[in-house]
Amino acid sequence: MPGDPRVRTVLGDVEPAELEVCDSHDHLFFASRLLPGQELDDVAAAEAELRAFAAAGGRAVVQWTPFGLNRRTADLVALSAVTGVHVVAATGFHRAEHYPPALVDRVADRLAELFVSDLFEGTPAGDEPDAERTGPRAGLIKVAGAFHVVDRHARWTMVAAAQAHHETGAPIAVHLELGTAAREVADLLCGELAVPPSRVILGHLNRNPDPRVLREVAATGVYLGFDGPSRANHATDWRLTDLLYELVTAGHTAQLLLGGDTTTAAARFSSGGGPGIPYLLTTLRPRLTRALGADAVESMLHRNPARAFAARWRR
Question: Is the pLDDT of residue 52 over 80?
Fold first, then answer.
């Protein structure tokens, strides 16, 4: 029988309250064929980023990098140990465009099986599906929607994620392409695929700042992730506080999560000149505290992640 909820970090399962201040969506390592030359692949830079985050009061980072995109989970173990920051690693599968077609074909018939293996047996060395599993266990499943729709690839990954969830209890985190198709994803996962809304986290909702849609999605009971808050080029930062205010006043404070979503080397604080992971605490937290109050921000950075990423692991 499942036990009490635990967060599965790269150093082992911990009590949810131990996460403390948490960046609910970020990347210490990431590499995609869509971002040539901007790989997050520097261990020293990742360590500097974590140390800067810890100096600002951060205690946990959830890495949403899925299978096949340079997770470097063995390095996450060492980084967590040396910095004292809890790190949660992901299994999962991103949009098709991120992968060579041959890799998609190799895992087509066993995606749910691979997710379960990552969650229970450990992650493979080299991030290859058939490599020896010498890394830590993953603590969440990350999949992705398409622009405004759940296309064939997205449905395939979400069906596999739901199967893995039902076998393991793991939370499912979803990249929403430019923040779209949130309701369609929630309806598929929580309706047809019977995943409890409390086990679903929708990301990038700040990129499609429609308050009516967000209230509708919040009414389903899923967690709403607002991440990449320093990306002013997306022309949505100025709406973030207003969106969060609307959701807080509508009674959805307990569903809101905040993350940095650093995906390129240029965006790193420690080495790339960007705002990086610390921005979440050094700039956004005080800004939101002034607008929303300390208790609401405490929920978004501490109490809500403790529930969202905890699971009653089934084995």
Answer: yes
Q: What is the pLDDT of residue 45?
A: 95
> What CATH number has the domain spanning 6-311?
3.20.20.140
| DSSP assignment letter at 40 | B
- 158: buried, middle or exposed (CB in 10 Å: 19+, 13-18, 0-12)? buried
Alpha carbons 44 and 41: distance in angstroms, whole number = 9
The sheet with strand 6-9 has its strands ordered as 12-14, 6-9, 310-311
Nearest Cα residue to 172 out of 153, 196, 155 = 196
* Residue 4: both structure tokens together: 């009490």
Q: Alpha helix (H) ranges present in 43-147?
A: 43-55, 73-83, 101-107, 111-120
CA distance 247 to 315: 36
* pTM recorded for the entire structure: 0.97
Count of other CB atoms within 10 angstroms of residue 155: 18
Amino acid at 152: R
pLDDT given at position 237? 77
Helices (H), the chain: 43-55, 73-83, 101-107, 111-120, 152-168, 182-187, 211-218, 237-249, 279, 285-292, 294-298, 304-308
Rounded Cα–Cα distance for residues 158 and 233 (Å): 30
In this prediction, residue 241 carries a pLDDT of 94
Which residues partner with 90 through β-bridges? 140
Domain map of the chain by residue range?
A: 6-311
Per-residue pLDDT at 131: 86
Instruction: Answer whether 177's CB lies under 8 Å from 145's CB.
Output: yes
Q: How confident is the model at residue 233 (pLDDT cuts 50, 70, 90)?
A: low
- Residue pair 178/158 in contact (Cβ under 8 Å)? The answer is no
